[in-house]
Design brief:
402 residues, 13 helices, 5-stranded mixed beta sheet, alpha+beta, single chain, globular
């Protein structure tokens, strides 16, 4: 047996993830401090009735005659998205129940606030909750993007997103246990964030940056496609991000370990803070692996503390440092360079332009499969769906007559 073999890692050596850390990474928590370096956005506190609406089954949106994307002359209610002005079906007319209620009657002030905020931000916004954006629900939007022009666009994306559901139901999963007397998810101050759409956004210029023990450890591109021009930009982008971190985030964010996303549009002179994410397995390391990040050497002055905070200790971690070694470590501060990793030409991700992201979250799966066949595939799917609904109505009618 090889005594020098490294022990098999069966669990990522993360420090305990606390609820306070998750809350510090909530948009409503950090945005007031960093508002001047983030794209224009508005935060709207959410009420209990609206949160109940987001958690409820089905997608019923308020009537909105001001919405330019709704054709109120249409009587097609097979889309799965229903407005309170939807034309009643034959089965509805047989019942003495009233038409579907307008869900916004439970939160009229909030509904108007969302509409007015969209108008204030130029009529085109990107929504998210405290932590997550509904990136997995863009298939519900006519533009196949997160850009919303109406309140109903926002509601459809939020109610169709697994990521948003995670924010609502599972945000403290995998956190360190707390005592029964401590506060729980009910105390989370949920907010809807509406960010003004960035004109001509260039996804290739968004980057994810990893901070360990208040040191910028590494960074990578967020859009997992190969771009021929990015390697030539690294000498410009890396010092920009390093200076941005040192000046704006290093000593001001509450926790010493976190991940932040930035956008550096042409002419690559200003860095915009897009998001701050938890130092936790739930955050996607993208081109890296979490084990690689956790074991990655950091700046010499911080390497001991970073190893300890990650639960990785070895004999060298505790040895005494001689005067000469101490000087060497001081010199090392000036030469440490955070790794800047890009998708290479031969990487499997390099040519994923036509690969739909988040397909596993797009429900139902049949819709995702049908979308791969273009318009013809979707028409065929809708035909099958209508037939299924007719059969279900016939079965329901037969059950009711017995």
């Amino acid at each position: 047996m090889d005594e020098t073999a490294q022990p098999l890692v069966t669990r990522l050596p993360f420090p305990p993830v606390t609820r306070s850390h998750i809350l510090h990474c909530s948009y409503h928590s950090w945005h007031p401090k960093y508002r001047s370096i983030t794209p224009k956005a508005r935060l709207i506190p959410l009420t209990a009735p609206f949160l109940a609406y987001l958690r409820s089954d089905g997608i019923i949106v308020p009537p909105d005659e001001d919405d330019p994307n709704i054709d109120f002359s249409s009587t097609d209610t097979d889309s799965g998205i229903f407005s309170s002005t939807s034309t009643p079906t034959a089965s509805d007319s047989d019942s003495d129940t009233e038409p579907d209620n307008d869900p916004s009657t439970q939160w009229p002030d909030l509904h108007q606030k969302i509409k007015s905020t969209i108008a204030e931000l130029g009529g085109n916004v990107v929504p998210k909750l405290n932590w997550s954006a509904p990136k997995d629900a863009t298939f519900m939007n006519a533009t196949n993007s997160m850009e919303c022009q109406s309140a109903n666009d926002v509601y459809c994306l939020l109610k169709s997103s697994d990521f948003v559901t995670h924010d609502l139901e599972q945000v403290f999963d995998d956190c360190a246990p707390i005592s029964p007397q401590s506060n729980n998810e009910a105390t989370i101050p949920y907010h809807l964030i509406l960010r003004k759409t960035i004109p001509a956004l260039v996804p290739s210029l968004e980057f994810r940056c990893f901070v360990r023990s208040r040191s910028l450890l590494c960074m990578c591109q967020r859009d997992l496609n190969y771009y021929t021009f990015l390697p030539d930009l690294v000498p410009t982008l890396r010092p920009l991000i390093e200076k941005f971190f040192d000046d704006k985030l290093k000593q001001t964010f509450e926790d010493e370990n976190f991940i932040f996303d930035v956008y550096i549009p042409p002419p690559h002179q200003r860095v915009w803070l897009i998001d701050i994410n938890p130092w936790a397995p739930r955050t996607d390391p993208l081109i890296f692996s979490w084990l690689e990040i956790l074991e990655m050497p950091g700046p010499p002055a911080a390497s001991g503390s970073s190893q300890a905070s990650n639960g990785i200790l070895n004999e060298d971690s505790h040895r005494d440092v001689t005067e000469g070694e101490e000087n060497d470590e001081d010199d090392g501060k000036d030469i440490f360079t955070p790794e800047f990793r890009l998708v290479n030409r031969d990487d499997p991700e390099a040519y994923a332009f036509n690969t739909p992201r988040y397909s596993a979250h797009k429900m139902p799966k049949d819709v995702v499969d049908a979308s791969g066949g273009g318009e013809a595939g979707l028409r065929e799917f809708m035909g099958r769906w209508r037939e299924i609904m007719r059969e279900q109505e016939r079965d329901d009618g037969a059950d009711g007559s017995q």
